Amino acid sequence: MPTIGVKRDLLFKSLGQQYTDDEFQDLCFAFGLELDEVTTEKQMLTKEQGDVAAAKDASEEIIYRIDIPANRYDLLCLEGLVTGLKVFQGKMKPPQFELSHVPEKERQTMTILPDTAKIRPYAVAAVLRNIEFTQDSYNSFIDLQDKLHQNICRKRTLVAIGTHDLDTLKGPFIYDARKPEDIRFKPLNQTKEMNAVELMEFYSTHAQLKQYLPIIRDSPVYPVIYDSNGVVLSLPPIINGDHSKITINTKNVFIECTATDLTKAKVVLDTIVCMFSSHCAVPFIVEPCNVITTNNETVVYPTLEYRTETISPKKANAYIGVDLESQKLADMLTKMYLEARVEKSGDLSVKIPPTRHDVIHACDIYEDVAIAYGYNNIEKSLPSITQIAKQYPLNKLTEQLREQVAQAGFTEALTFTLCSRDDISTKLNKDIEKTPAVHISNPKTLEFQVVRTTLIPGLLKTLAANKKMPLPLKLFEITDIVVADDEAEVRARNERRLCAVNCNKSAGFEVVHGLLDRVMQLLEVPWKKDEGYYLQATEDPAFFPGRCANILYKNVTIGKIGVLHPTVLHAFELTHPCSVVEFVIEPFV
């Protein structure tokens, strides 16, 4: 959940009303937000950076830090927050965003060249005309871009935003992809011109920008935007050019967004122009741009598209747990920036503005009704259907077995569900290709690459981390593993297993065998070949030859018991013999 910091006095001035901290906190809560902290710039520097020297020169002005829902991109700046709160309080109607009527030939144009498909294929653009910046609104403009970059743009991997002083440039604009050594310009706030190779080296130690370099560093071509005079506007997603940087005196802002996800780019562009068109000479009017795609198709951006959704008042009341008239529901939706009216059919027609890209389903509209009504105002009531709750049978059996296995002298462990590929294959003398594992598509570390298919590696890792403890070490775990299964609905299924390990100076097979017998006794399963359980000798590469057996229940294999192979012990850095029992408990529910 992103957090924005706004100056209290500026916020109250924009809202046209003064509040105490408690009153504003109540207003935020009613609107579905949370006032996280009341602080100052000095306190923030001291707390977050520990920079006492910088904090001495910092302002003592009160700052409200407000938690914003991750999908409410329109509330990530002061302008959007103020507009949303004013509409919620009924102090203003939801603004109507429109495109200016600029003749098509006079619009700014951006042409996307084919080579961009190799690195970053999409681009959108817009112009804010005759904008009036103050220092506070300028800071808010920059801060919104940063918040969007960290949020919906996924740290610039999906979308990168560039804002430029249009009066320093000459259209039409070209979006191309060139070799790094062929791109040369002066980066933002720098005095020296450099090519893209030098730029990458220059910013490799930069505190903020170094994290974005890997996005394009290894590509044979880099994306670049330049005007008709060959002036470079930006090298997305790294940095803009110094030539077209915006200042507090900028009057006309050219906004471009390059992206790997066109939908996200349109959302980002809509959000920026809707928030800051309020500072234009004619508020809420945005000048469109023509973008010529690689298919030679001309597309006009931003779209600023309004759409209408129809919902049933009856369903809205039922889902929320209230009984409100249709007009009351319409009024509450309008408070939430969603203008609504009652149709002749009795249904509600809800207009979704371009600022509310978070509304993608009827349930999102129902949620806004609940927020406007107030969750605390919804009366508590008993369900219309009386039911008696009971514990899920498998979980009940699991809890009962945990107690009994612990009483048998074993200590319970809780290990990670994810593990490395080697943990369930190489270290157990098995082939990963033949192991029915569910693989993580983009693992962040080598330790978490697959979902475990057995509980043994987790317990052996626990033993390895506790080698200094006195012997014997007896551990157990009863939980789920996951195996790939093409016949399952999601092509994978869970299995609840019991696994116990005995580590001692001798193998101690009789210890785990005794535990198995005790568990079966508790489950009232007899030692009988056809109707109960029994052991059948088998070979498994994870176990010592001739020291492994299948556990069968009603002639179906449910697990294994045996002494682990020395190579397995060595792989997990263990020096003492270990015997293991592992079996599925689901058949006994």
TrEMBL record:
Molecular function via GO: ATP binding; magnesium ion binding; phenylalanine-tRNA ligase activity; RNA binding
PROSITE patterns: B5
Domain B5 as annotated: residue spans: 304-380
Keyword set, alphabetical order: Aminoacyl-tRNA synthetase, ATP-binding, Cytoplasm, Ligase, Magnesium, Metal-binding, Nucleotide-binding, Protein biosynthesis
Catalytic reaction(s) noted: tRNA(Phe) + L-phenylalanine + ATP = L-phenylalanyl-tRNA(Phe) + AMP + diphosphate + H(+)
GO cellular component, one term: phenylalanine-tRNA ligase complex
InterPro entries in the cross-refs: aa-tRNA-synth_II/BPL/LPL, B3/B4_tRNA-bd, DNA-bd_dom_put_sf, Phe-tRNA-ligase_IIc_bsu, Phe-tRNA-synth_IIc_bsu_arc_euk, Phe-tRNA_synthase-like_B3/B4, PheRS_beta_core, PhetRS_B1
Any single biological process term in GO: phenylalanyl-tRNA aminoacylation
EC number per UniProt: 6.1.1.20
Record keyword Magnesium present: yes
Keyword Aminoacyl-tRNA synthetase among record annotations: yes
Gene3D superfamilies linked: 3.30.56.10, Bira Bifunctional Protein, Domain 2, Phenylalanyl-trna Synthetase, Chain B, domain 3
Cofactor (UniProt): Mg(2+)
Main location: cytoplasm
Similarity comment text for this entry: Belongs to the phenylalanyl-tRNA synthetase beta subunit family. Type 2 subfamily.
Subunit structure comment from the entry: Tetramer of two alpha and two beta subunits.
Protein name: Phenylalanine--tRNA ligase beta subunit
Species in which this protein is naturally found: Hermetia illucens (Black soldier fly)
